[in-house]
């Protein structure tokens, strides 16, 4: 690949951004919410996880999806050998992340996140980029953070500034789980004052904001991730309305859609735990966007080109990195 060519870093290495294809930009494979540092490794058998999850990834491929961004951060069960194994078995491009999740009252932050400076945290995340994650040669394809509602407390502002440093060195896009629109606007302000372009910022869970907030962030250049799509009561209508409001505002090119589906490790046992699909209004993982949202968008007058932009072009632009040496 040429120097300066737009690429996406997958768990199997870099690919040209235009080879990514239709993508779901915010999903999970396995998460473990036992709490930061309580489980040093997976509490399940990887081959059993593969047996359970692989058919759902193969079904996604049959729906024409070729890429999945896995948004589980470290300390919530990020398991990169499992992601590579599933990527190789399914043929799906899978992208993992670096960074820390401060949402839910810091329950998933390791002790050192409280003590270290933004430079020290950035150095840890950069090392995952330069040397690989946890003894593997698998590298992150984006930065994942988590914050609660705004205005951001100093600890979360520090996570943002650490992510800004990593972005400026690597080009990796910053995806921030966000409690509300006030937090999103605060994040954008912190990143811009650190020299980061809004185009490198994804407002994760933008469904927690208002139309006016989403349109403002999109106009400033940020990405609007409507990523909890589900079939719960009133939900398809709510997402459809939010997406069409962005379209009417001329911001279709800033929208990302996904389900936030996945599996969670059950119980507190330290070994041999079972996996359970999240559910969350989606009886089948990774399916509702295809079953309901796309038909609804077609009915609302969206063209095949617009749907292609939503699922293929927008994700490639949001996550493309341009760096000299990979
Ligand atoms: Zn998520």
Automatic annotation (TrEMBL):
Q: List ligand-binding residues for Zn(2+) 1.
A: 26, 28, 144, 260
Q: Name one GO molecular function term.
A: zinc ion binding
Q: Which Gene3D superfamilies match?
A: Metal-dependent hydrolases (3.20.20.140)
The record's section on SUPFAM superfamilies has: Metallo-dependent hydrolases
**What InterPro entries would the database entry show?**
Metal_Hydrolase, Phosphotriesterase
Q: Which UniProt keywords apply?
A: Hydrolase, Metal-binding
- UniProt protein name: Phosphotriesterase
The organism's taxonomic lineage, starting at the top? Bacteria, Pseudomonadati, Verrucomicrobiota, Verrucomicrobiia, Limisphaerales
């Amino acid at each position: 690949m040429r120097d300066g060519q737009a690429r996406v870093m997958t768990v199997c290495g870099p690919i040209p951004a235009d080879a990514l294809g239709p993508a779901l930009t915010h999903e999970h494979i396995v998460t473990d919410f036992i709490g930061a540092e309580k489980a040093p490794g997976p509490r399940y058998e990887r081959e059993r996880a593969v047996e359970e999850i692989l058919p759902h990834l193969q079904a996604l491929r049959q729906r024409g999806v070729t890429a999945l961004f896995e948004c589980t951060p470290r300390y919530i069960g990020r398991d990169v050998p499992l992601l590579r194994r599933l990527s190789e078995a399914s043929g799906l491009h899978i992208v993992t992340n670096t960074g820390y999740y401060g949402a839910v009252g810091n329950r998933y932050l390791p002790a050192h996140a409280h003590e270290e400076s933004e430079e020290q945290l950035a150095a840890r995340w950069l090392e995952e980029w330069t040397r690989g994650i946890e003894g593997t040669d698998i590298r992150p394809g984006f930065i994942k953070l988590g914050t609660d509602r705004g205005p951001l407390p100093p600890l979360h502002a520090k996570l943002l500034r650490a992510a800004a440093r990593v972005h400026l060195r690597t080009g990796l896009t910053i995806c921030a789980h966000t409690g509300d629109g006030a937090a999103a606007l605060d994040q954008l302000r912190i990143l811009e004052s650190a020299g980061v372009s809004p185009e490198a910022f994804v407002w994760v869970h933008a469904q927690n904001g208002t139309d006016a907030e989403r349109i403002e962030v999109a106009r400033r250049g940020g990405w609007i991730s409507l990523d909890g799509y589900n079939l719960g009561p009133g939900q398809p209508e709510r997402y459809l309305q939010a997406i069409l409001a962005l379209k009417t505002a001329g911001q279709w090119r800033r929208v990302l859609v996904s389900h936030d589906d996945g599996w969670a490790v059950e119980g507190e046992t330290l070994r041999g735990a079972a996996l359970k699909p999240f559910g969350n209004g989606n009886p089948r993982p990774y399916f509702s966007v295809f079953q309901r949202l796309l038909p609804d968008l077609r009915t609302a007058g969206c063209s095949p080109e617009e749907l292609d932009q939503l699922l293929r072009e927008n994700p490639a632009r949001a996550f493309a990195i341009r760096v000299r040496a990979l």
